[in-house]
Fold:
Amino acid sequence: MASIRITKEFSFEAAHALKGYDGPCRNIHGHSYKLSVTVSGTPVSSHQSPKRGMIIDFSELKHIMKQEVIDRMDHALILPSDLDMGEMNKLGETFSKVIVVDYQPTSENLLFDFAERIQRALPPGVTLFSMKLRETATSYAEWIAE
Structure:
């Protein structure tokens, strides 16, 4: 049977700052992110399975995304770990959901992070095919499995 792809879309709100960047994004600012996740696989063919004809139930993909990405990132302030620790401690005292990452929190790098998390959580036979992270209405980054 042929491989099929399905896509589910998600959204979350988050703020970030790009350390050392030479434009306004070096300041803390936020986005209404839109994330499209495409997985591929062969649909279940067993007549006994309640998931017959599906690669993965959309609700299962939603659960994985909620657990691995959305709940973690939604309404968070995402900052690189190489910021001054004094500044980090002050921000942690002011904001309750500060996520420190070991990379510059660009859309491109966020996608690498998301891909690792999602791939570990997908059931056997389901593969992460691609993702598109829309930062603004006119700007997005794409991750494609290679």
